[in-house]
Amino acid sequence: MPEIRNPNQGGGGSQDNRSFMVMLLVMFGVIFGLQYWRAKHTPPPPEKSPAITQSATPQSSAPAAGTPTAASSASSVATVQGTAESTTVVENELYRITFSNRGAQVTSWVLKGFNDTTGHPLNLVLDDAAKQFGYPLSLYTYDAGLTQQLKQALYVPSATGSLQAPASLSFDYAAGNVTVHKTFSFGADYVIHADTVVLRDGAPISALLAWPAALGDMENQLAYGYGQIDTSTNGKDEHLDIKHTSGGATLKQPFDFAGVSDQYFAAVFMPDQPQDAMLVTLHNQIDVNKMSRMPGFSKGTAQVPVLGTAVGNVSGHNQTRLFVGPKSIKVLKSVRTANNNTLETLLDFGFWGPVGKVLFLGLQAVHSALPHALDAVHDYSWGWAIIFFTILINLILLPLRVQGMRSMLKMQRIQPQIDAIKAKYKNPKATDPKMAEMNAEIMKTQKDNGVSMFGGCVPSLIQLPLLFAFFTMMTRVVELRQSHWYWLHDLSLADPHHILPILMVITSFLAQYYTPSPGVDPQQQKMMAFMMPLFSGYMTWQYASGLALYWNISNIVMIIQQQVMNRTSLGREMREIAAKRAARKTGAAKVGGARTIQGRR
């Protein structure tokens, strides 16, 4: 391979090589350490509690107002059943919910402001899974026969046809010794209120309100096992993924909220009385090849997990609110639980959560400040917001880059002294006691001259958390879901034509080529000149195109900034010192017989 020689770099220097290796090890350590950290710190699956067949009777044995009653000594009640299936549609500006009187449950929950992958309004009921495991707002009991009976029963609704929120809808059912009453109230936001009770022989039993079968936008995510159960207990939030969730586990805790979510949407219960709440985690398997909207998904049988939750009150009388909607920061902050907390923690930005949240808030602020012309027709505004926000970040980091160049220049100025110290000790082995003496003398020389061995690495080390936070944030915020930018149809998905990843390789190479790397071994520099661009292209090949857009713009801004800095007195002095060191090391001012690629200065 022909040698590539950067005009902005000079000869070696093991002390500077050490700085370079520290930066490299930190970068790769973070990448591979994330997986280890998650495996180490993810909570284990909750232990399965013994089945509860009947909870204690509440202090007052009288059901809530409007609830069917029965004498405690009666062995049967007057039958209350529907004669035929019927539907009731409740809607506001945000949703359209379709109830069936069979099971008094939801068969369709459409969010009007979002589309699925086919361009149709998004239905958050995963119908194929719901047919097997239960529809939303069905009842879960510890008696499988009773649970099935309550799902198949024909209830008597208080209204049929269409209702416009604000509204209320109730369902009643009675047969044998079982009486059921459900009331749902609807407002102008994504939250509804539920009041349910199941009486057997006149006493309430544990019958939890359920969202049993994941969310409808997961049809293309099921194969990747994405989905989690979110809970908040005494201010402690947990996000249990599929691998750490067992089916049928019962948890009795003061739940502020509990429910199921995926990347962008959530169905979360918020009990009116958190201190008396109980949660059952549901974990089932479904064959994606048999799902109606996923024909030919894969060859053979593909059993994938489906998560759900059931939440209720230990007294058996459930009163809870239910949020079903997007995991948008603005929306989640507007919803408050019984303890006056918000649902903001549902949006989990991962390991670099605080950094990711700040980055998104900044991106959102830039997006809000953009002129409406960029948002016309094709909704390109989020792509432009990423571009302008990236430029802003790089301008903020510019003083650190200048300071980094100054630190590297100071290191170059004292490099002859460092070389003399190494020659004095004749480069002892690591186990030689003289090694400690040599390092102490080198550190004293650096301190006396105001040099920090990590000074030149600070800009890169600061950018790493930003990059990793962007890496996670781009696929968690619903605002970027299905956002367009010219040939990119969804900034949260990979570039379909791989234009940005290819451009990544080019811009990453140029960014390294024009950035001074004094003291870095030429062979290491040559390796990194090819390895890092290929690595960045690989990272963005199948990942969110929004990340690739951010990374490319960042590289372009860095190249421009570095070109300007290389023309300053600071840059010229660095090149002069580097050239002298290179000449002393090689014994000549040219590379004999080697082909050199000269960069623009």
TrEMBL record:
The record describes its membrane topology as: Multi-pass membrane protein
A GO molecular function term, named singly, is: membrane insertase activity
InterPro entries hit by this protein: Membr_insert_YidC, Membr_insert_YidC_N, YidC/ALB3/OXA1/COX18, YidC/Oxa/ALB_C, YidC_ALB_C, YidC_periplasmic_sf
Subunit-structure text? Interacts with the Sec translocase complex via SecD. Specifically interacts with transmembrane segments of nascent integral membrane proteins during membrane integration.
Q: Where is this region: Disordered?
A: 42-82
**Protein family according to the UniProt entry:** Belongs to the OXA1/ALB3/YidC family. Type 1 subfamily.
Q: Know the name of this protein?
A: Membrane protein insertase YidC
Where's it mainly located?
membrane
The gene is yidC
**Residue limits of the Membrane insertase YidC/Oxa/ALB C-terminal domain?**
382-567
Function per UniProt = Required for the insertion and/or proper folding and/or complex formation of integral membrane proteins into the membrane. Involved in integration of membrane proteins that insert both dependently and independently of the Sec translocase complex, as well as at least some lipoproteins. Aids folding of multispanning membrane proteins.
| Pfam families for the chain | 60KD_IMP, YidC_periplas
Which processes are annotated in GO (biological process)?
protein insertion into membrane; protein transport
Which CDD domains does the record match to this protein?
Answer: 5TM_YidC_Alb3 (cd20070), EcYidC-like_peri (cd19961)
Superkingdom is Bacteria
